[in-house]
Design brief:
The chain is of the alpha/beta class and 258 residues long. The chain has ten helices and twelve strands.
């Protein structure tokens, strides 16, 4: 059985990790390099860094931050924010990213996904989809760092993006982001049925139970931020508890559950 992945997310603005609720009211959550180093030491499978001000400011994600992260990381690093061209993706990969996330630009010009996949390989391309509920079991795509909702079905867009060459879907529920209320399980189920590539669930996690629910709903990986940034638990402790629930994952050789 394929191993499930636990992925801390670093939303970065002006060189600092930030966290908010439903993409708003951002607060400082530390230095990205310090956070990434700690999370790797505790057993994170990957790190996702999203430069949340890149698209609104019309630039690519900070290469300096990517280089600093690569300097301390040996695990995969996915970077998103402001990827609009092949040159943007190439610069991030050259700076140390293993995968690049694309969101707003792909919605505006879907063939960009195919061009990126053809140039760098599907394994390097992550389609980030921010979805907001519009009606029961209906979600719409949100772009520009959560500031603009479109009249586009999010589940259908995930399917289209996978068909165009995205190797993974990073699926974030805008409604659940930062709320600690758990993932939108119906959204995860709908997208997992619609695509043939791994789905990373994001938005709302605060307990081990939430992670298990998302994995049971069809996610291949679970992304979380607040539950680790706030120091209420550690990745090592979470993984140990997931293992007790028979979730297949990579464990550290040592065990030190706080």
């Amino acid at each position: 059985m394929p191993l499930k992945r636990l992925i801390p997310c670093l939303d970065v603005r002006d060189g600092r990790v930030v966290k908010g609720v439903r993409f708003a009211d951002l607060r400082d959550a530390g230095d990205p390099v310090e956070r990434a180093s700690l999370y790797q030491a505790h057993g994170a499978d990957e790190i996702v860094m999203l430069d949340v001000s890149a698209t609104p400011e019309g630039r690519r994600a900070s290469l300096k931050t990517v280089e600093r992260l690569r300097g301390v990381l040996s695990i995969p690093l996915t970077v998103g924010g402001g990827v609009r061209t092949l040159d943007d993706a190439s610069a991030l990969l050259s700076a140390g990213a293993d995968k690049v996330g694309v969101n707003t630009a792909a919605v505006a010009h879907p063939p960009l996904i195919t061009r990126l996949a053809d140039r760098f390989g599907v394994q390097c391309i992550v389609l980030a989809v921010d979805a907001q509920r519009a009606a029961p079991d209906v979600w719409q795509v949100v772009v520009r760092s959560g500031t603009q909702r479109l009249d586009r079905d999010a589940v259908a867009w995930c399917g289209q993006g996978a068909a165009l060459g995205a190797g993974e879907i990073l699926l974030t529920s805008v409604d659940r982001d930062g709320t600690h209320e758990g993932y939108d399980l119906n959204l995860i189920r709908a997208v997992a049925r619609a695509v043939g590539v791994p789905v990373i669930a994001s938005g709302g996690a605060s307990t081990v139970g939430h992670l298990v629910e998302a994995l049971d709903a069809g996610a291949d990986a679970v992304l979380a931020a607040s539950m680790f940034h706030d120091g209420t638990t550690s990745i090592e402790a979470v993984k140990a508890r997931l293992a007790l629930r028979d979730v297949p994952l990579r464990l550290l050789q040592r065990s030190s559950i706080p």
